[in-house]
Design brief:
Oligomer: single chain
Radius of gyration: 18 Å
CATH superfamily of the largest domain: Aldolase class I
Number of helices: 14
Number of strands: 11
Helix content: 40-55%
Number of domains: 2
Structural class: alpha/beta
CATH topology of the largest domain: TIM Barrel
Bound molecules: flavin mononucleotide
Shape: globular
């Protein structure tokens, strides 16, 4: 067993958080990650409703039988924080407040008895979330699936570990035991894993997404804002999203089209046009596997690697 501050504080068997993936991580996925000994986070997207949170939290608890984690997007809370109330009503153990300044929300999370964590993409972000009083910081690198920053996981993780006394997790590009062992050897207390779980039958989202991920290699992703602009998702400009390249990105990424044109050309039902957010570990995801197996294998392999004689 890999024993870290993350496993101790949350009483986990493995130092893995299942990433809060909006549109893909509902109660089944989160519950399976928790059942395997990590902590799965529900991905409450900007368009999620309080009812969705309550229903998926119940599913996650039933499957996972343990603590509940939920991820929210801070910039979306700044416009309407009712989703935070819905999340705190579920008595979570951990709330992730990422992409923005979590300061207005951390006290409420703590008052509800939960840990607050934030993903950061730069050292400036680190200072913001330290001031806000979060309990763990997650260094999220450019190779991550979904929305992320521009610095690679390894350079960012090293910078963050050197610059803070907070416990640090790593996210972005961790898809096997090798990745988990690497970040733990570097000083992280664990990893937040997203893409590696996305070919699991417990994911939600479009039917085609799992197959597209399995087909994709590590060079088949693109960092872009065109899907946000097509889908009227008002993400602050500094965060692009990493998605699988497809006919839509070939046609529109970097073309300078306006939002109206992008929306008119977008069709989420079409497997060649619809967005599949995923990171560069897409190349390591080669078959559909239950999330619990993915988590257990990553943890077991990491432990073996960390114990091997050098
Ligand atoms: C499909 C997808 C959706 C995501 N949605 C969110 C989200 O709603 N909130 C969030 O904080 N992070 C989100 N992320 C980022 C993850 O929390 C995490 O940083 C990332 O998956 C880690 O990198 P990896 O995909 O290489 O494992 C998303 C990632 C993916 C792949």
């Amino acid at each position: 067993m890999i024993d870290t501050r993350l496993t101790r504080e949350l009483e986990l068997a493995v130092p893995i958080l299942g990433a809060p993936m909006g549109g893909r991580a509902g109660g089944r996925l989160a519950g399976e990650v928790t059942r395997a000994g990590g902590l799965g986070l529900l991905g409450a997207a900007r368009y999620a409703t309080p009812d969705w949170v309550a229903e998926e939290a119940a599913i996650a608890r039933e499957i996972g039988g343990g603590p509940l984690g939920v991820g929210l997007m801070t910039w979306a809370l700044d416009a309407d924080d009712s989703l935070l109330d819905a999340v705190l009503a579920e008595d979570p153990s951990l709330v992730s407040l990422s992409f923005g300044d979590p300061a207005p929300y951390v006290e409420r999370v703590h008052a509800a008895g939960a840990l607050a964590i934030s993903q950061v993409n730069t050292l400036d972000d680190l200072r913001v979330v330290e001031r806000a009083g979060v309990d763990f910081v997650v260094a999220q690198g450019h190779e991550a699936g979904g929305h992320t920053g521009r610095i690679g996981t390894l350079p960012l993780l090293q910078e963050v570990l050197d610059a803070t006394s907070l416990p640090v997790l790593a996210a972005g590009g961790i898809g096997t035991g090798r990745g988990l062992a690497a970040v733990i050897a570097a000083g992280a207390e664990g990893a937040m894993i997203g893409t590696a779980l996305l070919a699991s039958p417990e994911t939600i989202g479009p039917e085609y997404a799992r197959g597209k991920l399995i087909e994709a290699g590590s060079a088949d992703t693109v960092y872009t804002s065109i899907f946000d602009r097509a889908r009227d998702q008002p993400w602050p400009a500094r965060w692009g999203g990493r998605a699988l390249a497809n006919e839509y990105t070939t046609m529109w990424h970097g073309q300078g089209a306006d939002n109206e044109t992008l929306s008119a050309a977008y069709d989420p039902e079409d497997p060649d046009l619809g967005v599949v957010y995923a990171g560069e570990v897409a190349g390591l995801v080669t078959s559909e596997r239950p999330a619990s197996e993915v988590v257990r294998v990553i943890a077991t392999d990491a432990e073996r690697l960390l114990r091997r004689p050098f």
